[in-house]
Amino acid sequence: MTRCTVERLMKRMELQGARRGKIVRTTIADTAAPCPLDRINRQFKANRPNQLWVSDFTYVSTWQGWLYVAFVIDVFARRIVGWRVSNSMQTDFVLDALEQALYARQPEKSEGLVHHSDRGSECLSIRYTERLAQRRVLSLP
């Protein structure tokens, strides 16, 4: 059988293949906390630099264990403008990625930069949100 046939049949029978290794959750949403509105309606388009930044983080398996990589992307340039790597999933490393992006790009307060991130507790933390407010950058889920 071909791969697509196996995939289709497994889906129909509600079967999943075995996964190796430990599953790591990166986004841990606090359902009790109020979340900012999604003001961009999932439309990831920008007409100029420093108009819309998106951020997230992921994990990478290495010989020495899991590493987490946080990044901030300028949607117009489609380029990473800030990033950090950490061995723990803490607010500090996503905040450091944001700090690097702010330092590298030096967005003006009048430019109206919009920042979009997922609803993970790291990106909705008080320190992260305060830093965005200092720069008058909108924090969006």
UniProtKB/TrEMBL annotation:
Molecular function (GO) terms for this protein are: nucleic acid binding
GO biological process assignments: DNA integration
Residue stretches spanning the membrane? none
Residues forming the Integrase catalytic domain are 45-141
Q: Which InterPro entries match?
A: Integrase_cat-core, RNaseH-like_sf, RNaseH_sf, Transposase_IS3/IS150/IS904
Q: What is this protein called?
A: Integrase-like protein
Q: Which organism is it from?
A: Nitrosospira multiformis
